[in-house]
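Sequence only, no structure available. Ideas?
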Amino acid sequence: MLLPVAVGVSLALVPAPDGLTQAAWRYFALFAAVVVGLVLEPLPASGVGFIGMALAAASRLAAPDPEASLKLALSGFANGTVWLVFAAFMFALGYEHTGLGKRIALLLVRRLGGRTLGLGYAIMLADLVLAPFTPSNTARSAGTIFPIIRNIPPLYDSYPGPTARRIGGYVIWTEFAATAVTSSMFLTGLAPNLLALGLVEKTIGYRFTMGEWVLGFLPIGLLLIAVLPWLIYKVYPPTITGGVHVPQWAASELAKMGPVSRNELTMASLALLAISLWIFGGQVMEAATVALIVISLMLALRLVSWQEMVAHKDAWNVLVLLATLFGLAEGLNKVGFVGWFAKGAAAALVGLSPTAVMAALVAVFFLVHYMFASITAHATALLPVVLAAGASVPGVPVKAFALLLCYSLGLMGIITPYATGPAPVFYASGYVSRKEFWTLGLVFGLLFLSALIGIGIPYLQYLGV
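Reply:
I predicted one. Tokens follow.
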């Protein structure tokens, strides 16, 4: 409990570095204290975020006016991604209550449950198939796939806590890691990719085509897709590796469930409606709006009750956590700390070779995401700054550098429990412990970053980008 406070106070007492106001530095001290609190969890994570939000509003470090300071601190509650994450929990509730989630999980297990590794590849391929058509990775991963796969671990007597490592931790982490890869693989796999494309065009005057995007990421994406479920199987192994009796048992359970019920068909229809609108209705309706409409229909059709929604404490906890972190991260950007940090990092690279500059700036851009709870905010705040810094170095291939920065947006979503929209949902499932989530995030984050730099730079140079 004392360590986050000590970190915050110690940093706040240090004079602000050159180029940064004392208020901006103290706001960073507050943000750093919150991050330490999220890692150590002296209180539940949502409680840590709530305290940070309250202190940010009261301190008026990011906005001197009391009302403006409060609005900034509460701004995360108006963010569509926050409500999309909340909707993922409500969808899962609908899948559970109607029995649809259990039926789909049993079908998967009957077909592929002979080997746990086979389940891993099936889950990853499901995300891969949806990725080109679902610009919101929260809608795709947390709203569509998570409500289904969360029904798989209980089939193997794997639950959050001591039995999580039987198979639950593997299943959950495989999907979370898979969505990070597919988010970078396709231009339309992550909404901030489209934003990044516009920022690149404004900064260097070049707009990449969808074909150029896919071609540039191809060797990285194919390699990661080929090895990721197997690699997680080795790094974070499940204790259940499969068995013939499991598919047989799943078949018997399906027989006990009988024919598909009316409620299951209704829930399936609503899920297909959501996916269709997410894929084809982007110009008419935001992804979060689609989710809220579907939840309203679930209530109206009595698939779930309002009392059940109110009682879903995990959903409300995640909503508060993500909303408070969005507000805090927005304040960090508003005070100018993020831009100051990026410019300082770029200045320190003077004298290095163009390839080294590219690699270092991509790494900085990737790792600084520990300070963000939104990839959109990260791209908006940092991409033009870092891209301009790299473009000013003679010899740096600007187009290749721009692509590497854009590709990193999806991959960086794996590093923390708040790094991207789906992250809080998978974290709150309880199958991957706090320590494991941060450790695996660091390990696979560095793995993804190494693949991006080690394969991406020579490959793009070979293509002549």
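The CA atoms of residues 106 and 363 lie 42 Å apart.
Hope that gets you unstuck.
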